[in-house]
Amino acid sequence: LSTTPEGEKHVLTASNQTGRAMVLNRPKALNSLTMPMVESIQRNLRDWEGSDLCDLIILKSNSPKAFCAGGDVVQVSREWKSGNQPGAMKFFQNEYQMNHHIATLKKPMVAILNGYTMGGGVGLSVHAPFRVANETTVFAMPETKIGFFPDVGASFFLPRLDGQTGVYLGLTGQMLKGRDLLYAGIATHYVPSERYPMLEQRLLGLGTSDFDAVNAAIEEFVAQPEDSHIDYSLAEVRDAIDTCFQYNTVEAIVQALEETVKAANPTVTTWAQTTLKQLSQMSPSSLKLTLEQLRRGAQLNIQQTFAMELGLAEKRL
Predict the structure, then answer these.
(1) 219 catalytic residue (yes or no)
(2) Which of 152, 164, 181, 249 could bridge 245 with an S-S bond, Cβ 3.0-4.6 Å?
């Protein structure tokens, strides 16, 4: 492993034949993204995309606890409050450019997720064509809790999840774990963590940038559920999610949830009660903004999405 040219310690790189890997290496901060990390990732993406010696890119973490727990929001808001608004906005600008670059990469990129994958960590992975989860992976977009909104391209990917699942996840900050990420469409593959080293070895030595070949190589390592039963934690409430979160105002969603509390199915009743409690703990203005943003994002392309989010970030800070 070698560090990046500027001696950036938090994004390591590795090469093997025509495979390239970036390893997030800021474990004490759960790999939360700093400006130098974003710049380092962007530089590697540019170099490797333009290199004939690179066929495939892997993005992974050195920490068993987290792939990436988000952007370094503490640092960014400190910048903003100290009067360095351009510095704070520059972080979002660079981060969104990196997310957009991942979404439009010509070469296959595989994000290998473990532990916390939240906020900025979702932006780093969800736009890649291949996203591998394991039993430790925890997904969430918890921004409405801190008075922000789900960004990093969430306006593009959340509305495109099945039914109203993305709106539910974006408003409540609900966590999904392990195989749930696959069922929700956030991950493309589920591979148990003990197979990760073999998977990485296989990918790095693959020697092709053919997307079907990459997919087939990952498929060699996937694990099916032990029985044919689908153990999706949202399975029993999927219809209720679509019914309650179909509305265009937060008030109508809350009203629908209050009605659903009277449901005959105790699982659905409990879910509705929990969801109402979750929403009551969020910033009311963030909820309204997020709902509007997700409805608009459903009609936008990826570039328009990031432009919208940049404008919103400036207003929310």
Answers:
(1) no
(2) 164
